[in-house]
Amino acid sequence: QVQLVESGGGLVQPGGSLRLSCAASGFTFSSYPMAWYRQGPGKPRELVATIASGGPATYADSVKGRFTISRDGAKNTLYLQMNSLKPEDTAVYYCNVVYWTQNYWGQGTQVTVSS
């Protein structure tokens, strides 16, 4: 079965960096587009970044130039490098795949940006 397990969240000061990871299993990772979403306190879940199976990426305007999504097919792992973090980036971050028309989510990893 499809499993997505996020890690790498934590508490970081404004201007700091974090790298999130998402270990994927149960499907042919290299063949599917992947995405990172986030849900801040009292906010709806929003799309942060996507990456196609061949590598092209897209980003929300709010993170463009600060975040980088990438994937490692040998490790079946999705990454999100987050730089120049702001308090408004505080959220639970989720990785996502649509497999056979069904959305799959990990359990999420908390990112808190605060001084």
Give the number of DSSP strands.
11
Q: What overall form do the CA principal axes indicate?
A: globular
Element-by-element helix/strand order: EEEEEEEEEEE
Mean pLDDT: 96
User: How does the helix and strand content classify structurally?
Assistant: mainly beta
Largest sheet: 7 strands, mixed
Radius of gyration: 13 Å
Indicate the low-confidence ranges by residue numbers. Answer: none
| Helix fraction bin | under 10%
| N-to-C CA distance | 40 Å
Structural key phrases:
115 residues; mainly beta; seven-stranded mixed β-sheet; four-stranded antiparallel β-sheet; 11 strands
Strands, helices and their partners?
Blueprint: E1 3-7, E2 10-12, E3 18-25, E4 34-39, E5 46-51, E6 57-59, E7 67-72, E8 77-82, E9 91-99, E10 102-105, E11 109-113
Parallel strand pairs: 2-11
Antiparallel strand pairs: 1-3, 3-8, 4-5, 4-9, 5-6, 7-8, 9-10, 9-11
